[in-house]
Amino acid sequence: MLINTSNNLLITTIHLLSSIGAINWGLVGLFNFNLVTLLFGSFPIIVTIFYIIIGFCGVYSFLYLGKIFCKPGIKNVK
């Protein structure tokens, strides 16, 4: 099996938020429609915090790719 399917709530949440961020950027690029600004536009500090959290989730997801695509039983990924 190529993908390590661990059921960790934190990892699942991080990947979910990264996916939401990617979908939002797709909407911005295709239709100039920002869902986050639509939902939280009247609270700019919440929009900023949300983008920071999404950014951290994206970086963590990128760094976590090495662990996802390793063979089962491999503990150390360089």
Description:
Pfam families: DUF378. InterPro entries: DUF378. This is DUF378 domain-containing protein. There is one protein chain. The chain is mainly alpha-helical. The protein has one domain (9-68). The protein has 3 helices and no strands. 4% of the residues are buried.
Number of helices: 3
**Rg for CA atoms:** 15 Å
How much helix is in the residues? 55-70%
How far from one another are the termini?
20 Å
Q: Care to give the gist of this entry?
A:
The protein has 78 residues and is mostly helical.
Descriptive labels:
single chain, 3 helices, mainly alpha, 78 residues
List the helices and strands and how they pair.
Blueprint: H1 9-31, H2 35-40, H3 44-68
Helix pairs in contact: 1-3
Pfam families: DUF378
Keywords: Membrane, Transmembrane, Transmembrane helix
InterPro entries: DUF378
